[in-house]
Design a protein that fits this description.
The chain is mainly beta. The protein has three helices and 15 strands.
């Protein structure tokens, strides 16, 4: 593992040599606007080169030492734990979470979320009640700004899952989730 600077950004670089070839990963894909393919070997095999910016790597990895966060200012453990639960794909697809700004929110009856969507991806949202069989679709308004509205039927804890696709019909990929605590 090595730390490198590219266009002023600190990145983690990992090179793994296997019998099948070379796998290169680094902490940068959103920087290059998605995965890149590295060709190698006789017959030319392709291997993914994944680049993840430090801010994205820091969504799921909290190092023992602040200097390994590779970003300034660094996050405290509390700030790390309060980050929304968005997956790297969320950022690679160009989304920005406008609201809520926490992974867990308390609502009266309705969870509302807003996403900045400059690439005009399609978003669907679903909720499920923890420890129950209550599941349903949420309402979404598509466009450069996506609005998600989930009317939660009863009090309790709900997991709201966000999914996205380039086209309206087809397979949607999981991009993040929000936990909603509905009171009375």
């Amino acid at each position: 593992m090595a730390r490198v600077v590219l266009d002023g950004l600190w990145l983690l670089l990992v090179l793994l040599v296997t019998g099948a070839g070379v796998w290169l990963s680094s902490s940068l894909a959103a920087y290059l606007n998605g995965p890149v393919w590295l060709a190698a070997g006789p017959g030319v095999l392709a291997f993914p080169v994944l680049f993840t910016p430090p801010e994205i790597q820091g969504l799921s990895h909290f190092p023992d030492e602040d200097r390994w966060q590779l970003r300034h200012p660094t996050l405290s453990r509390g700030e790390f734990l309060r980050q929304p639960l968005m997956r790297p794909r969320f950022y690679a697809e160009g989304f920005t979470l406008v609201s809520p700004d926490r992974p867990q929110v308390t609502v009266d009856r309705v969870l509302e979320a807003s996403l900045h969507n400059p690439r005009h991806r399609y978003v669907v949202a679903r909720y499920e009640k923890r420890d129950d069989r209550v599941r349903a679709e949420c309402d979404e308004e598509q466009g450069p700004s996506v609005s998600v509205r989930c009317a939660l039927p009863d009090e309790g804890t709900y997991r709201v899952v966000l999914l996205s696709n380039r086209e309206e019909y087809g397979t949607y990929e999981w991009i993040g989730e929000i936990e909603a605590l509905r009171g009375r």
